[in-house]
Specification:
about 300 residues, alpha/beta, Nucleotidyltransferase, domain 5, 2 domains, 6-stranded mixed beta sheet, globular
């Protein structure tokens, strides 16, 4: 029986005899089957941006056939994109963008444009990349003393890793209950945050925590930990709301005359992408929605938009 290997793109077990024979792809540290090769060589330059300086990227582009080179002309003047979730990357946040969330996270991803978002999504296929997990929370409110009352974590395959209600020390604000429907009666028998904290952090450490509005969800994770004087670790984080805004490329004009990418509510994004799992403002359903939206963007990044 032929030796087999696992293709880094389609994730199928493939006989070694059916492995692609492009030495450029081998040099990049990839094992790809011959079936994946034709449609993936045009993506190689994007993968390389997370691993090599721009002059190497230029060499890789010019090593491709002329018809493929033209597809990458838009990347020739881009900086080399280095992603924080790639092991041993030299990622450093741009100082001008540092905000409060950067003070308590290992990294908070920011994107320049749609191409940058697509390169980031593709980079999760790299062998040395941290895996993503998808998180959503429901809370007692939005204030500085608000706490988490429901939390769900979903893995890269859409499987629920963790889901629990949480009994807070503060009251649930009526406006918050009006959104998620949870009341004191629903959470009074749930565990306190310290009881589940170690298990939750175990699922989040050494992963990229992706949420829809990360600055809120990650703040509430830390804020609830602070309430109980629990040491909150620095996590790698990404906000799919802002990634999707860059990906969607819909612009709005600000009062100062400048344009910015419009952000969209999760339910709007799901409807626009024709995903049939509407958010419900409950943690498990919404975490599944974040995962589905990420997967839809991933498919578009590899195969292009649907006709």
């Amino acid at each position: 029986m032929d030796q087999a290997f696992r293709c880094d793109l389609c994730h199928q077990e493939i006989p070694v005899t059916e492995r692609c024979r492009d030495t450029t792809i081998f040099d990049a540290g990839w094992e790809i089957c011959a079936r994946c090769e034709p449609g993936r060589r045009q993506r190689l330059a994007l993968y390389m941006t997370s691993r090599q300086p721009s002059e190497h990227l230029w060499w890789q582009i010019n090593a491709l056939p002329p018809e493929t080179q033209s597809m990458h002309s838009s990347y020739r003047n881009e900086e080399s994109w280095i992603f924080p979730h790639i092991t041993a990357s030299d990622y450093q946040p741009t100082k001008r963008y540092r905000g409060r969330i950067d003070a308590y996270t290992a990294s908070y991803m920011r994107w320049q444009n749609k191409s940058h978002v697509l390169a980031w999504i593709d980079s999760f296929n790299l062998r040395h990349a941290l895996r993503p997990v998808f998180l959503d929370t429901e809370t007692t409110g939005t204030r500085r003393f608000s706490e988490i009352i429901e939390l769900c974590i979903v893995d890269a395959y859409g499987q629920t890793l963790f889901h629990s209600l949480v009994n807070p020390t503060t009251e649930i604000e009526p406006m918050a209950s009006a959104v998620h429907g949870l009341t004191r009666k629903d959470v009074k028998d749930a565990p306190r945050y310290p009881t589940i904290f170690e298990e939750v952090i175990g699922y989040l450490c050494n992963r990229v925590v992706i949420t829809y509005n990360a600055s809120f969800d990650i703040r509430l994770l830390k804020q609830t930990a602070d309430c109980y004087e629990l040491a909150f670790p620095a996590l790698h984080t990404g906000c799919l709301m802002y990634a999707y805004a860059k990906y969607r490329e819909k612009y709005v004009e600000q009062s100062n005359g400048q344009r910015r990418c419009k952000t969209h509510r999760l339910e709007e994004a799901m409807a626009y992408e024709r995903l049939d799992l509407p958010p419900s403002h409950r943690a498990e359903r919404d975490a599944q929605c974040v995962h589905q939206l990420f997967q839809a963007m991933k498919v578009r990044s590899q195969y292009g938009p649907s006709p």
